[in-house]
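Course exercise 7: structure representation. Students receive a sequence record and must write out the corresponding structure in token form. The form below is the worked example handed out in class, using Stage V sporulation protein AE (116 residues). Read each field label carefully; the graders check that inputs and outputs are placed in the correct fields and that the protein name is recorded exactly as given.

STUDENT ID: A-19
EXERCISE PROTEIN: Stage V sporulation protein AE
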Amino acid sequence: MVFLWAFLVGGSICVIGQIMFDVFKLTPGHTLSILVVTGAVLDGFGLYEPLIDFAGAGATIPITSFGNSLVHGAMEEAEKHGLIGVVTGMFEVTSSGISAAIVFAMVGALLFKPKG
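STUDENT ANSWER:
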């Protein structure tokens, strides 16, 4: 049952993104931004963590989880260190994912020759 809920929730998030492309004719940048902000707002209201508990990877894999991570880290560090914790908390939680993306992109660029 866990796999079914992960598929349905993750698939629903992807369907929403595809509708934003096809129906509303939004650019990928606009769609990405809206989904990240949606995840951040849901976490700000305390609604994204229950979604993660319910759907597992269906809620942690889509881009909405990045917004959740930013706000979650900022709120945790703000409780410990005040206003400066808001800024440092966002980078502390998401730094490993961003670093991995940069490293993998560099390795991919070195291994494969772009066409064009």
